[in-house]
Design brief:
The chain is an all-alpha fold and 490 residues long. 73% of the residues lie in helices and 1% in strands. It contains 28 helices and two strands. Strands 1-2 form a two-stranded antiparallel sheet. Strand 1 and strand 2 form a beta hairpin. Helix 13 packs antiparallel against helix 14.
Length: 490
């Protein structure tokens, strides 16, 4: 290799390394470009396209106005950079400008614009690019076909995605999994399972998609069965599969399966990141093992708002209310901003331990310090807190002055407080108000009202309430629970 060629190659590599820096201004990019021109490295296509991509991210209008883009490959470089930088609207805008410049998109262009169209879930846009791909002869290309299938599935036009899959000559595991996932997202679990069974090859991603799909639509037994089949088939569970299975364990009380997943994580030194750690905390808390949930939390290297929230709620549910509030304070000290669910857990803890002043301070902090608008559940917790403490007048005042319509939880909490503290005069007034507002239109609350009337021998009112429930088709939903016995959910 001639000395000048070696020197030029080294300059190009150095320029590419500099262009890898995340934050570069247009001025800095201009200086790099000038250096490339002076040294002759501007002739290297790889370096120049990297420069185009960085110009696009820093200032898209600059790239356009300077007419730097001359070939389809140049345009694709910019489009790809914008796509990887999470700018789908700019991807579509640049693609339109490219076609206005009398350049036709190729298979790479279509893969990026279809992905951008999927981000907007705009089926009309996908149909337009599909039509263009057909006219230009790119429809059967692997990248384009998978892009079309993914885009249609993302737009919930799963029938169109299925038609493409059925007529495809190059069906791979990605296209099969995409359509299957699309069925799950629209709640068509049976069609997803049928497609899954037909798949000629299944990989860890397709198994994970089925597990998470079942978990997300509430079919937890099926999710856990699919996870067990995945293990039996000798497929190594992915991070996503374990999170989905742990979610199912949480809802089913499948502690032994949850423990098996935890042991698997430890055995193979799987990184206990925020998502997997939170899933384990939630599972142990809901299966009654709050101590192990705390151990998992303490072992996590990185704890986010969801990990804290999960344990705060778990501790409150296990009547470890003081520990729950201590964790909430620790979270604030570590500068992790609580979300609305975190505050719900903290208020629940205050309510169960009768910590009135603390609950009021937390409620006020939620509004003033964090700018979170209280939802009916937050007001319900506050009403419950005041009611448990016997502060019925304040609780009644809160219900009447709520900036939103009180729901059945808030009114139900106040009714129960009046019943516990023997304030039957207030009960009569609340029941009349609740019926007018429609906030008693909940089975549990109406059963509570009926029982309250029965406790004071007002049988005419009991009969009236039960008739109203019958006429409106309301039925008391029986309680249910599940547990795992010898690896079987019962």
């Amino acid at each position: 290799m001639p000395p000048f060629a070696f020197s030029l190659s080294r300059l190009c590599k150095r320029a590419v390394l500099i262009l890898e820096h995340r934050f570069l201004t247009v001025r800095q990019l201009g200086q790099i470009q000038s250096n490339l021109v002076v040294t002759g490295a501007i002739c290297d296509s790889v370096t120049v396209r990297k420069l185009y991509a960085r110009y696009a991210i820093a200032d898209l209008s600059y790239t356009q106005s300077r007419s730097l883009l001359r070939s389809v490959s140049d345009w694709n470089t910019v489009i790809r950079a914008l796509s990887e930088n999470g700018q789908p609207e700019n991807v579509l805008w640049v693609a339109r400008n490219m076609m206005r410049s009398d350049l036709l998109p190729d298979n790479y262009t279509f893969s990026f614009v279809l992905h951008a169209s999927a981000e907007f879930a705009d089926v009309a846009l996908v149909l337009m690019y599909h039509s263009l791909a057909m006219r230009l002869g790119w429809e059967k290309h692997d990248y384009v076909q998978n892009g079309l299938i993914h885009s249609y599935a993302s737009c919930k036009a799963v029938d169109l995605a299925r038609d493409l899959l059925d007529t495809s000559c190059n069906r791979d595991v990605i296209s099969w999994t995409t359509v299957m996932n699309g069925y799950m997202k629209i709640g068509e679990a049976a069609l997803a399972a049928e497609l899954f069974d037909k798949m000629p090859q299944k990989n860890a991603v397709s198994w994970s998609a089925m597990i998470n799909g079942y978990a997300q639509i509430g079919m937890f037994t099926e999710a856990l069965a699919t996870f067990n089949n995945m293990v039996i088939a000798g497929i190594k569970p992915t991070h996503s599969a374990m999170v989905g299975a742990l979610s199912a364990c949480s809802h089913l009380g499948a502690l032994s399966t949850g423990k098996w997943i935890h042991q698997y994580v430890d055995r193979y030194n799987t990184e206990l990141d925020a998502v997997l750690g939170t899933a384990l905390i939630d599972m142990y808390a809901k299966c009654g093992c709050i101590g192990i949930a705390c151990e998992v939390f303490n072992k996590m290297l990185h704890r986010d708002v969801f990990a804290y929230t999960s344990l705060i709620l778990g501790l409150a549910d296990h009547c470890e209310c003081e520990s729950s509030l201590q964790l909430f304070r620790r979270m604030e000290l570590e500068k992790i901003s609580p979300n609305k669910v975190t505050f719900l857990g903290a208020l629940t803890a205050c309510s169960r331990m009768g910590y009135v002043m603390g609950g009021l301070e937390i409620f006020q902090s939620m509004i003033e310090d964090y700018g979170i608008v209280p939802e009916p559940q937050h007001y319900g917790c506050l009403v419950d807190l005041l009611g448990r403490a016997g502060l019925l007048e304040q609780a009644d005042m809160l219900v009447n002055r709520m900036p939103i319509k009180p729901d059945s939880y808030a009114v139900g909490a106040l009714l129960n407080a009046c019943r516990v503290h023997g304030s039957y005069l207030n009960l009569e007034k609340l029941i009349v108000q609740g019926l007018k507002l429609g906030s008693l239109a909940h089975t549990g609350v109406q059963v509570l009202v009926s029982n309250i009337f029965a406790s004071v021998n007002k049988w005419d009112n009991v009969q009236r309430m039960r008739k109203q429930m019958h006429d409106t088709g309301m039925k008391k939903v029986p309680g249910s629970s599940s547990l795992q016995v010898d690896d079987v959910i019962v």
